[in-house]
Structures are given as structure tokens and as C-alpha cells.
Amino acid sequence: MSTVKPLRIAVQKKGRLLDESIQLLKECGIKIDNGRDQLKAAARNFPIEVLYLRNSDIPQYIQDGVADIGIIGENTIIEKKKEVEIVQKLGFSKCRLSLATPKEMTYGGPADLNGKRIATSYPVSLQLFLDRNNIKADIHEISGSVEIAPNIGLADAICDLVSTGSTLFKNGLEEQDVVLKSEAVIAASPMIDAERRETLDRLLFRIKSVLAARNKKYLLMNVPTDKVDDVAALLPGMRSPTVLPLAEKGWSSVHTVIEEGRFWEIIDELRTKGAEGILIVPIDKMIL
To answer: 20 to 30 Å CA-CA from 47: which of 65, 205, 263, 288?
Structure first.
């Protein structure tokens, strides 16, 4: 019997992106025997081998075919300029690479950066932004603690990753322009073979089912039968709601899938239309 070659997937060896990557695989029903400080681990019930690598090294490993795919931030792919294919955006580990200046500095737009010194750990992405805006500035590449550069006289502005902006605030900086927005993605190697590509397609099917279910809820309610059309008009479901007759004459049960945030927008209208016994049920997977 032939053995299926495992799909080699590179993930960050530590940090939040690792935790979210492993959680995603678990939600896809993939069980990984991973221990602390392992360099690789195999899945027990799916042809996958997980490689634990430094975040900055992952694009190179994917390009060279050492890893078939990787879960990595878009910003790292852009910064490393590697030839990889983004096959799926994952919707987590979102951040933005932004320009920030001292609060006392007058800033009216990118043109104000002409002739200025900008400290960053992302010189490639920053240069692309400057070129798009016809800006001539001096880029000072540093690693770590970029936000202190203006305070110690090293730079006039910085370009760094921002999630909440609290670090900028603590260092007297103000976010000005977004250079790029980033989230975790699955990137594939240009050298992936047909057999492993088939396994990747199976994995992507599972991942899309998990992602489709996030922030979605299954909504059930009892509605007077003569009000079903009015209630259905309020529901942005997958296609149309399911309507089932109740044992009590004149009443129906209405079922649909809805984004959680949309429910709170229409709850009062649903009640006005006579909806009762409203239930919100989590969804684990959605096959579209």
C-alpha cells in the first residue's frame, strides 16, 4: 500500500500566531502530537506534518519547497519578497503597518516626510509606500523598540506594526498613515507537487467551513404564521429561512443563520413582528 506524502505546513514556533494556527487546525478536526520545543510534529488523523520555525524564516522555507505551505502574516511575505502563493486569508492576527510621528510634529500628509528620517523594522514595505507617494526620506532599519527612535533623536518618525495603538501613545507618538493592512494567510510553495496539492485542497475545504461558521449563529424563533413573511423580510440568511409549522395552530418556527452583530440590529423589529422564544445557537462548521 502506498503512503500519502504528508503536507508540510510551517507555523510560527511561538507566540499568538502559533496559538491561533494550532487552534484552527484543531477546529478542522486535525489532531497534532506537539510537545514543547519540538521542531516538527505529525498529525494523527490527517496527512500533515507541522514544522515549527522562526516567523521571519517561513517565507524562505515555503519558496524553497522545504515547507509546502505556511501560516504567516501578509506583512512578512511582502517584507521578505518571496515567490509564494497566497491561497487563503484567515481573518485572524490582524494588524496594520503604520507611520507615526511625535504628537508635537505637524503632519498634513505623506509629503511632510520628505527629507525626514524614518525608523522601521520593515524597510521594504516602507520603501514601497514612499515610492508610491513620491517621497524621498532616509530609512533607518532597526530591530526592536522602534517606537523609542524619535525620543532618542534617531529618527523623525517611525513605521511599525500597530494593533491597539497603546505603545505609540505611551511613547508620545501619533499614528498618521497606514502603509499596509495585514492578517494571517495560508501561503503555498510554487514547488508543491500534485499529491500534496490535493491534500491542501482537502485542508482548505475544512478551513473554509470553519471560517464560514465564525461570527455566525443559528437563529430559531416562534412566529405567528400570518407574520412569517414580515419576519423573513428582516432576516439576511443564507438563502431563505426555514419555516416549520408548530403543533399550536397559527404559529410557525422560523430557522436561519445570521451574523451575530446583525441580530442585535433587528431584535426589536423581530419582537415587534410577534417573534417569541428566540434562541441563538453557536455554529461549529458551515458547509457552503
So the answer is: 288
Alpha carbons 65 and 150: distance in angstroms, whole number = 41
- Residues 6 or more apart whose Cβ sits within 8 Å of residue 197: 188
- 211 residue type, one letter: L
Nearest C-alpha neighbor of 89 from the set 183, 8, 202: 183
Please choose, from the candidates 67, 29, 27, 66, the residue with its C-alpha nearest in 3D space to the C-alpha of residue 46. Answer: 29
Helical pair 194-213 and 16-27, crossing angle rounded to 10 deg: 90
Q: In Å, what is the CA distance from 168 to each residue of 78, 109, 181? A: 23, 18, 17
What is the chain's percent helix, strand, coil content, to nearest 5? 30, 30, 35
Output the CA–CA distances (angstroms, integers) from residue 18 to 11, 60, 143, in the order listed. Answer: 6, 18, 21
Grid coordinates 503597518 are at which residue?
97
**Which alpha helices (H) appear in 65-122, and where do they start and end?**
74-80
pLDDT in tens, 192-222: 999 999 999 999 999 999 998 988 889 999 9
* Banded model confidence at residue 287, pLDDT cuts 50, 70, 90: confident
Q: For 31-77, how does the pLDDT look when each residue is reduced to its tens digit (9 = 90+)?
A: 987 665 778 899 989 999 999 999 999 999 999 999 999 999 999 99
How many helices (DSSP H) and strands (DSSP E) are in the chain?
8, 15
